[in-house]
Every structure is written in structure tokens, then in C-alpha cells.
Design a protein that fits this description.
By secondary structure, this protein is α/β, with parallel strands linked by helices. The chain folds into 2 domains: 211 residues, Rossmann fold; 182 residues, Glycogen Phosphorylase B (Rossmann fold), CATH 3.40.50.2000. It is 40% helix and 20% strand. It contains 15 helices and 14 strands. Helix 12 links the parallel strand 13 and strand 14.
Length: 399
């Protein structure tokens, strides 16, 4: 008998989120899949060309995709973000009742949670009426996130929010969590058997990279690349400070991406006369990003010093491991332990510019045997614990 799966998500193709891969997995199985999402407007804040502001019904591979009308994010300010979230909640709330009345029951409802938990209530209404199994794939640990970024500072409000989320968690049949530390938080809300450690994986283009083409450390200048969001949470100012403290000048740092803190970083780099050492590049597609990887000797990973961030494993860590390039980390907690315990690079705790400078100064002294070992360890660890084949197998078993 065919399985029927309904997916609620804020983001879907052509926006790139891991839920896209999940839908592709389902398309190769005997699973009837429907995706309910908003019109694509991330990260630019405008609805992409070719999509109606009134919503639409289209097909992606074998999945039916319902696009709901939303107010675009705009420039990312608080007002438009709030309107974006609320408009999607209202559209989803009403659309859920339409699904309940007009569509056959879906066996499983999968909630892809990346932002405010406004998908929770419609999903639980669907469960209450239809009796379907509901799985929450929680990628944003609220209310801890609100505390980490300073939105909620009151302990009373945090306590109230935590009780609300504990209630939500108990209503779901299963919770998927991206880090072991998040699982520890979840286990204070629900019984351990209801939460599953479900880490991220890399895109197929990175999983299938030909490793013989990856650079070694034989070039005269050591190239260190960072890819992704250039925001405040990444604390790349710490990297700039560390570079300014370096005693050796055989390093080139490439920051590939965009973010709210990019202009501030550029100004800081210029003020420290490091423009020849730290270079900025615009965001690129995955295929073009692979070119940067192949020119890199090390890949950089960084997060600010924050209790929540120490429990977070950034998705780019899996990408870095998949391409088999040693990692330099400047972050605390679970990701730090993964790097150190598996010998896949060098890592110090967050916000330690002096210690990071020492690592950078020592890179030219790294023997090729150690470098090659770290490369191999990256790839081996990825295949053992994080590959998409493992994630697919587990998810299919869960639904």
C-alpha cells in the first residue's frame, strides 16, 4: 500500500534547504508526497520570478507542491519578517482546513521547522482531526534561540516559553534533532525514545567529489576558505583579529558568502591593513563553490561564544568533511569535540584570537603525513556518521 506524506515547510526549492533532498528521496520510493510551503523569497526578500503572489499548485518531480500566498521578507527588517511569518501562518492555518475537508488522509505529516514555530499549531490541528502520525524535524531550538540572540532576556518569559514548547513537544509523535546536545534539551521535555539524533548531510555534489583533485599543502601560500553566512553569530571578527596577530605571512583567507555583517567585516579588514590577506567573494552556486574548495588547504568554521551555539553543529561542518579538507574551527561545544576527537583538523574554543593565531602560524609546519591523515579522517567520518544514504534510510524507517 502506498504511503502518503504531507510536508509543512517555510522553504522549498528553488530555495536550498535539506527538505528538498527529502522530497527527492521520497520521489524514488512508493510515497505519495505533498509539500505545503510559501512562495520562494529567501534570502533576497522578493518573490522569485515565475511564482504568483497569490500562490499556486505545481509538481516537483513526483511531489505536489502547494505554494501559499505570503508577504515577502523584504530587506529582513523586523517588521517585514514579522509580516512574512504571520502571513504564512494565516495562509497555512486556513489551507490546513481545506486539506482536511478535500483530501484523503495523509499517513504522516513531517514538519520542517527552521524559523518561528508557526507551523506547529496547524500541524497539530491536522493530527487531532485526521489522526495522522506527526514528526517534527526541529532545526531551530526555541526558546533557547531567542535567548541566544537577545530577543528574550526575561527569565520569566523564557520559563513560560519553555513550558509552551514542552507542551508542543509532547503532542508530536517524534522529534528529529540535528545535534546530540539538542537531544539533551529535548529529553527534558519528552521521553528519550521520542527524540532521534538526525544530523545534517552534505549536498550530493560534495559527497561525490573526486578527492584526488583536492589541494595539498605544497603551495607556497596556505589558502583558508570560509563559506556561508557572514553574520554576527559567526564572529568572523575573531578571525580578522587572529590574522592581525600572526607572525608568519603565508596565509590567504577567502570569505565566500554574504550577510548582514559583511560590510562591517570589510571595514575591519581595511582598518587593519589586511586586504591582501583577507579577501571577500560573492555567494556562488554549489558547483562553483567546489572550485574554491579545490583551491583551499583548510576550511574555516566559526561561531560566537554562546551556550546555544555550543550545542549547535553547523551544517557546513558536514560539507567540509564530505569534500575531505582539514578544518580549522573556532567554536565551542559539540562541533569542537567532533573536530578534535576525530583528528579532522585543528580547533580552539570560540573568541580566542590569540590561540587561533598560534594555530595559523603553525600551519606551515604541518607535515604532509598528518595533513593527509586529517583529509582521510574527514571523509571517513562523513561516510560513517553523516552521509545522505544513512539519513535517507533512517527517515524512511521512521515514516
Amino acid at each position: 500500500m502506498e504511503k502518503r506524506v504531507l510536508i509543512f515547510t517555510n522553504h522549498f526549492y528553488p530555495e536550498y534547504f535539506k527538505i528538498n533532498d527529502v522530497v527527492d528521496w521520497f520521489s524514488t520510493e512508493n510515497i505519495i508526497t505533498s509539500v505545503v510551503t510559501s512562495n520562494p523569497n529567501y534570502p533576497k526578500g522578493k518573490i522569485l520570478k515565475g511564482f504568483s503572489i497569490f500562490g499556486s499548485k505545481k509538481t516537483h518531480k513526483t511531489a505536489t507542491v502547494f505554494r501559499l500566498p505570503v508577504i515577502p521578507r523584504g530587506g529582513g527588517g523586523k517588521l517585514f519578517l514579522s509580516l512574512n511569518y504571520l502571513s504564512y501562518f494565516l495562509s497555512l492555518f486556513l489551507f490546513t482546513f481545506w486539506l482536511i475537508v478535500t483530501h484523503r488522509k495523509y499517513d504522516t505529516l513531517l514538519i520542517h521547522h527552521t524559523s518561528p514555530p508557526l507551523l506547529f499549531l496547524p500541524a497539530l490541528i491536522y493530527k487531532k482531526i485526521k489522526g495522522s502520525k506527526v514528526i517534527l524535524w526541529d532545526l531551530d531550538m526555541w526558546p533557547h534561540t531567542l535567548s541566544a540572540v537577545g530577543i528574550i532576556k526575561s527569565k520569566t518569559l523564557l520559563s513560560i516559553a519553555e513550558k509552551l514548547f514542552k507542551w508542543f513537544y509532547k503532542k508530536f509523535d517524534l522529534i528529529l534533532l540535528g545535534s546530540k546536545s539538542f537531544k539533551e534539551i529535548a529529553n527534558k521535555r519528552i521521553s528519550p525514545e521520542k527524540s532521534v539524533y538526525y544530523p545534517n548531510w552534505a549536498e550530493s555534489i560534495f559527497e561525490n567529489v573526486k578527492h584526488k583533485n583536492i589541494s595539498s599543502t605544497k603551495s607556497e601560500k596556505i589558502v583558508i576558505s570560509y563559506t556561508g553566512n557572514l553574520g554576527e553569530a559567526q564572529n568572523l571578527e575573531n578571525l580578522v583579529e587572529a590574522i592581525s596577530l600572526c607572525k608568519r605571512n603565508k596565509i590567504e583567507v577567502r570569505l565566500i558568502g554574504d550577510g548582514r555583517n559583511k560590510e562591517n567585516l570589510k571595514s575591519l579588514v581595511e582598518s587593519k591593513n589586511l586586504k591582501e590577506t583577507i579577501k571577500f567573494f560573492e555567494p556562488v552556486s554549489s558547483s562553483k563553490l567546489l572550485k574554491y574548495f579545490k583551491e583551499s588547504d583548510y576550511l574555516f568554521l566559526s561561531l560566537n561564544d554562546n551556550p546555544l551555539f555550543s550545542k549547535t553543529v553547523p551544517a557546513k561542518l558536514q560539507t567540509y568533511m564530505a569534500v575531505g579538507i582539514p578544518i580549522i574551527g573556532a567554536l565551542s561545544g559539540e562541533a569542537n569535540s567532533i573536530i578534535k576527537e576525530n583528528n579532522i583538523g585543528f580547533c580552539i574554543n570560540a573568541n580566542q584570537a590569540n590561540e587561533l593565531a598560534k594555530i595559523l602560524d603553525s600551519l606551515s609546519l604541518v607535515q604532509d603525513s598528518l595533513y593527509q591523515t586529517m583529509k582521510k579522517n574527514c571523509r571517513d567520518l562523513y561516510l560513517k556518521d553523516f552521509s545522505s544514504l544513512k539519513r535517507k534510510k533512517i527517515l524512511l524507517e521512521l515514516i
